[in-house]
Amino acid sequence: MDDPAEALKGLRDSLRSGIGDADEYTFQLSSVLDAIGLGPMSAPSSDNDRTIQRFLPTVQQRLLSTIPTFLPALDQRGRKLLDSFFCPTPSASTAPLARQVALAAYLTLTAALAPAPPTPLPMEAREFVLDTLASLAQAYSIDALYWATHGRDPTPLLWEDGVRVSTSLPSKVANAVGRWKEGGWAGDVPAVLVPRAYFDNYVRRLEGLLWEVSQNSLDLASLREVLEKLGRLGLFSIAPATEIDTPTPSFFPAFLPSALEHLHPPPGSPLPPYPDSFFPDLLLPLSDANLKAFVAGLLVHLASRISPPFTTPMAADRPSESVKRAALVMNQIIGKPDTGSDAWRAVVGALLSKSVSAEGTMDVMRRIAAAWAGSGSIAAKHAFLDAILEAWCDPKHIKYASYASQYTYLFHPEPKIRRLGMLIAEIMSERTIEEGCDDAPGPSEEDQMKELQDKLMGEQDPSKAAPKAPGGPKRLKFGFKGAWDGDGEGKEEARVLRSGVGIRDDDASLSDAGDWQLGWRDGQQAADKRQGTEQAVPKLKAKAERQGRSTDKKPRPKVVMLDPDQEADPLQGYDSDGTGSSRSRSPSPSYLAEVTADPTLALDAAKKKKLKRPVYVRQLAELLRDKDSPESIELALTYGEPLIRAKRNFGGEVVENAVSVAGAAIALANPFHLDDFENKRQRLITALVACSPTNVPPFLAQQYFSQSYSLLQKGVMLTALAMGARELAGLSAPETRTKKVDFPSKMLPSHLHEKYITSTDVQNSGQGQLEGAISGMRNLLLSKGAAAGEAHPDIARQKRLTVGQTKRRKVAEEGSLASRQMSQSTPSQQTAVIPYAQVAGEYFILPLVNRFWEYFQNASVRSRTLGDRYRGAGTGMVLSPSALEKFLLTLALLTHAARHAPSFLSVLAPAVLELSVTVGARHRPAAQTLIAADSSAHPASAGQAASSQDGDGGDAQVVGSALELALAALDASVELDAGRTLALDHAELVLAVGEWAHGAFEREQAGLKNAGAGGSREGRVRADAAGVVVKIAEIGEKWGAMR
After folding, report:
1. CA 349, 350, 355, 361 torsion: positive or negative?
2. In the prediction, which pLDDT does 765 show?
3. Using an 8 Å Cβ cutoff, are 197 and 531 in contact?
4. 980-992, pLDDT tens digit by residue?
5. Distance, CA of 762 to CA of 747 (rounded, Å)
6. How many C-beta atoms surround the C-beta of residue 40 within 10 A?
7. Burial code of 933-945, b = ≥16 C-beta within 10 A, e = fewer?
8. Angle between the N-to-C axes of helices 881-897 and 955-977, in degrees from 0 to 180, rounded to the nearest 10
9. Is 305 in contact with 518 (CB distance < 8 Å)?
10. C-alpha span between 565 and 570 (Å, rounded)
11. Cα 775 to Cα 730: distance, rounded to the nearest angstrom
């Protein structure tokens, strides 16, 4: 494919129609990359920009849809090829094309993070999308997007889209991860996409772009658009200015270190500085709000690194070199202090704003602003003082900025405020009154203070006003004894202000060794160190996990290295003359090496095709049908369940191939003795039932009554139906338990025990999935009847008086092994494809019931026609006691989970009740045996009992299972409508069930037991019959019409 457009369209069509395997997938990716100029051996061309902008976004969307299928099967090379379609490896030769790809990836991936994206994002692709966005943020930031849209053919609309998606990326990622976590996703936001880390890198790349643009004299409107967007996001914030590890993103901590270095390059640096007018031309056209926020943030951050705790406190009685350098930086960034200019209004507004309050830096910030204003003309200095005094002398400011509602500073009750007013009055009189006016001797300082106090008192009370003495204006001097000495009451602040009168920071001399970084070089290093630590920790963890996995999977060495003593022993047979032995001569080491190196002896291994991990559901059926290859079967069983569950909501692939996979899995045998064969097959078929509930359950119901399967395979079908239904209904599915070992010393370690346990041990333990689920259901239903009986006053009183052991709730310390085991005992389940209530009747219960009646009818006809000959043919497996027991238990679990189905009361409950009473009544023993206490007195009876148990040993199994099926149907009916539908529409059926259960209970009470009722089934029939009788009695009491 030489034409890039045709190559991209061909890949798009192939992804849409489906690619066969991972090798073809990788080949097509590599071919397209070579065609568009991003391959390792291809020649890049700038003519492909338009082609990439037009066709690549659709290809990227299709690639995202294939992530669940091919990403787990890709090797390192295939993963690198896939990443190249979103985030190519940066290089100088492919930089223009790579930037176009990155821009398209930004738009495609951020669209996939939306709540309702155009193309739904598979759950398995979420981590890939976040990792790719993190790589894009590091490799292709705002500078790459700028050059991608400002090349030979500028595209302003794409630039606007790039600015929009790049500035909103952290919020979109956080919102998407929050929604996914609510749905049960366990991932998290990558460290690179956390707002503080992301915008630090973003602003540093933006500053590098600004310097590059400044050297080429390009248009600044596009860059100003980025600053406007950052200002609207609040990145020009002024607090916190001194904290590096704060999670709040800010513009200046990442901008100032490199910007100051570019404004004043170090000696010997080949890089030219910014032009003088670059930053004023860029910043002053900003909106008023953003310009004011920028200037306020700039002032605070310039002052933060030359203030405590980063440096020693500045002396107020001498000029500061750092303040002068900061003022010069202000000149270079916002321009000179021209009265009434945009920069002037922004600086004055920042000084007088109540929102600008940076603790510890306000004094230095004000000195920087004063030095910046002092660098202008005389008119600018006077205008600056007028603006400050206008705010200082505002009566509202005097009134509401103080602790009480007073009118003047000098008469304020707070000593700090009063001394500040005295100091300002003295300074103002000194600066405004000429020196010649106070040459004549005047009153003492005590007289001046008394005169001032009398004047102030006279303003409040005119009668006490003293007559004004004639004379000219005089300077105020509050230098009386003790006025400024000591500590407290504002004296320290007054002394500092008095010592700073007349000090101009512009007079400071700049040394050659001065720091133009203003302390921000250390801040940059600390920020880089913090970001590097954040990025290094996840990488180290991932590397440790990969090393751990590789160590676990490393096979044990089959060749043992010899020690020096063993190496000295020659591995050669004994010499023999051939006369004393009939054995052949031992082969020499050289001969063995020659045989080992002979390639003709490894023909089978050379011709053996390497199996690949399945990526499509249809490949599972192909692997399972290859019964002569144990590797194919093991590969399908190992990856079958996760593959099916991963694609359960991904198109119709599972639905189309579920029946063929289920048929191939059921027909499997285990002649190769594969590890954990039965457990893997059971999980695979259960996953098919849960993920395709409209196709697989009817198929299993049909195959169950076929004569082509063994009893073990039929049990797999029933267990899959029951566990899949419970999963769809949101109920727990018990895990398969192994046989309990009384003595731990007789049990192998856990990993060896799991390796050598067999399916026979699981079956003999009596604790399979089906048995565990039915045991929990039986205990739940019978406990309801027990709770109802305990409501009787006499029984309740007896229970209160009974002293028993209090059950304690199991707790475990957080983070302990017991806590992790308790948390793992309740695994999170996936959301059901279809609620079980919608498919219970049509696809689960009724197919089993209807096919059972059909089979039962045919079997009865053949039995009457052929007699005993049919019984000995071995085809009556479905009606054997063990098979009937599992069948009825499965129906009981399906019925118990289907109580919320719309057709339960009118269709499902009567159908299963009719089946249970029919099967249970037919398995009543022909000759009931009395188990007497003294069986030795009646040896004939004992012999009959033994023979009856040998011949009909499964009657107790069938009767107990039928009673549990009836109990599940009756319990749900009583809870839903108190048995009204059954009592009014199926009264005869309810009476028949009651009579049958009552008879079974009476026989148990009289000591007449069904054959096979001993062992673990002891008391089961009696308890189940009692439960059914209680439910029938409740219905009868509620609806008397059935009597």
Report:
1. negative
2. 46
3. yes
4. 999 889 999 999 9
5. 15
6. 10
7. eeeeeeeeeeeeb
8. 10
9. yes
10. 10
11. 18
What letters, b where the CB count within 10 A reaches 16 and e where it falls short, cover 141-152?
bbbbbbebbbee
**How many other CB atoms are there within 10 angstroms of residue 919's CB atom?**
20
Classify strands 1008-1009 and 929-930 as parallel, antiparallel or unpaired: antiparallel
* Residue 1008, beta-bridge partner list: 930
Q: How many CB atoms lie within 10 A of CB 797?
A: 10
Please indicate, yes or no, whether the overall pTM of this predicted structure exceeds 0.70.
Answer: no
Report the Cα 82 to chain-centroid distance in Å.
23
Can you tell me the distance from the alpha carbon of 628 to that of 669, in angstroms, rounded to the nearest whole number? 11
Contact 96, 46 (CB under 8 A): yes
- Residue 508, both tokens: 């400071």
Identify the bridge partners of residue 929 per DSSP, sorted by sequence position.
1009
Q: CA-to-CA distance for 1029 and 1019, rounded, in angstroms?
A: 15
Placement of tokens 């029939």 in the chain = 1021
Start-to-end Cα distance in the chain: 85
Specify the pLDDT at position 419. Answer: 63
Residues 996-1020 pLDDT 10s: 999 988 888 877 666 555 545 567 8
Question: Contact at 8 Å (CB) between 199 and 170?
Answer: yes
Residue 777's pLDDT is what?
A: 87
Give residue 144's identity as a one-letter amino acid code: A
Query: Distance between CA 966 and CA 777 in Å, rounded?
Result: 13
Token couple for 536: 């290094």
Confidence of residue 944 (pLDDT cuts 50, 70, 90): very low
| Of residues 782, 678, 791, 686, the one with CA closest to residue 733 | 686
CA dist., res. 788 & res. 574, Å (int): 88
pLDDT at 270 over 70: yes
CA 530 – CA 536 distance, rounded (Å) = 10
Give the Å distances, CA to CA, from 1021 to 240, 723, 895, 974. Answer: 75, 24, 19, 21
Contact 979, 973 (CB under 8 A): yes
